[in-house]
Amino acid sequence: MLTWGNSPVAGDAPPDWSNKIVHATLLVGNTQLQGADCAPGAYESPRGFGITLNPSVNEAERLFAELAEGGTVRVPLEETFWAARFGVVTDRFGIPWIVNCERSE
Question: Which end of the chain is more exposed for a tag (fewer CB within 10 A), N or C?
């Protein structure tokens, strides 16, 4: 993760942006997600989407617990007729996550 305050362009950012993120990488198993904070004045609340993860059962339980910390559980992580584990959580940043752990054959 690189914050504006620690970047080569720190002097170009507003003073209150020193802890905002220029670039961050999140590894989920073998999947790499990248993101950043919006430019000053450009933030809009996320809505109308969900990010789906398809991990193993152990990973599903760990990921769901971590995403739920400081967030809101919409559908508890549990076994369903189609999945070994399924749950929906909005993390502390307002990002909706869908965890769907498919059944092993």
Answer: C
Query: CA–CA separation, 57 vs 54, rounded Å?
Result: 9
Do both 50 and 87 map to the same domain? yes
Instruction: Single out the residue of 69, 70, 35 nearest to residue 51, CA to CA.
Output: 35
The CATH number of the domain where 65 resides is what?
3.30.720.110
Residues 37-87 pLDDT 10s: 887 788 888 888 899 999 999 999 999 999 999 999 999 999 999 999 999
Nearest CA to 102 out of 77, 88, 87, 82 is that of: 82
Give the structural domain span for 31.
Answer: 1-44
Longest dimension (CA), the chain: 55
